[in-house]
Every structure is written in structure tokens, then in C-alpha cells.
Amino acid sequence: MCEMEVRMKTSVLNLAIVATLFAGAANAAEVSVKWGEVKSFTDFEAVNELKSRFEERTKANFTEYVEALGQKLPEQNKLQVTFNDVDLAGRVEPTFGATSSAFQRILDDISYPHLVISYKYTDAQGSVLSEAENVELKSLAPPRNIRNVMGSSRDALYFEKELLQDWFRETFPDAAD
Q1: Model's pTM, two decimal places?
Q2: Coil, strand or helix at 152
Q3: At CB < 8 A and 24+ separation, what contacts does 120-126 make?
Q4: What span is annotated as the signal peptide, if there is one (predicted)?
Q5: pLDDT (tens digit, 9 = 90+) per residue, 51-69?
Q6: Where are the domains of the chain?
């Protein structure tokens, strides 16, 4: 294959990928995420970083994930999710070194994640399809298999996202997968 053919095939492939991404976004429900009073959350604690930076990054991660879940819902519908309380998986404990102390989040079977959310799901006319206040999402002792361990080491919110995914599947069983 000559260089020109390779460039053309690469360009066509890139266009196909971009078209697929935009097509998926066009078929997604409008999703909005709101936050309750973060200062009153059970455990939304930063570990060895600025609290404000941690809060913004973590809220952005949750928001992005809920928006990704919402892409499976019909485009004419709207989903509004409010985080009322967050208790992140694990617990924060001090570590002591030779010259300083720091903190780390310890994951174990007794420090499970717990989220409290409210949601409202409406159609194009604004009619409420489903809604609930203070839905408690929790997993009492997340399963410890190699998939969970590997996934949790790559994503600080792995267990919390599993809770959201389970809630989404139960609440919207007809959503496209």
C-alpha cells in the first residue's frame, strides 16, 4: 500500500470514530447532576491533597460517570440526579514515616461505600416517569475477586461506580446497553 492509501484509510477510520462518538451523544438523555452540602457528607475526605481539589475532582468523576450512564436513555428524556450524602469506600488512616506523617485510604470489608441520591426522570413533555428521594446505595462487603482488586486499583471510585451502575440497571432496565 502506498503512503497516500494509508493516509486515506486512516482519515476514513478517524471520521468513522468521530461519527460514532457524536451519534452516541445525540441519542443520549439530558443528564444533570447536583450536589447537596458536601461539608455534611459522611466521608468525602481528601487524602494527602488539597480538600478543594479533591472535592472538585471527585464530583467531576461522579458527574461524568452518571452522564455516561445517561447516554443509554432515550434522547428526549431528562435525568436529574442529586447526591445527598457520600461515604466513600474505605477509611482514612494515618501512616507514620521517619520524618513525617501522611494519610491513606484503607479498603476493607467493613468500610463499604454508601451513597444517598435523589433522582427525577422525565419524558420530553416533562411528565415524571420515575423519581425517588434519598435512595440508599450500599454494598455490605464488596466482593474480593481479581477483577475488583484490579479495577479498584485503577479507579479511586470503582466501588462507588459499581453502586451507581447497579442502581441504574435496576431503575432503568429498558435502557440500551
Answers
A1: 0.75
A2: helix
A3: 120/79, 120/80, 121/73, 121/77, 121/78, 121/79, 121/80, 121/171, 121/172, 122/77, 122/78, 123/76, 123/77, 124/76, 124/77
A4: 1-28
A5: 899 999 999 999 999 999 9
A6: 30-171
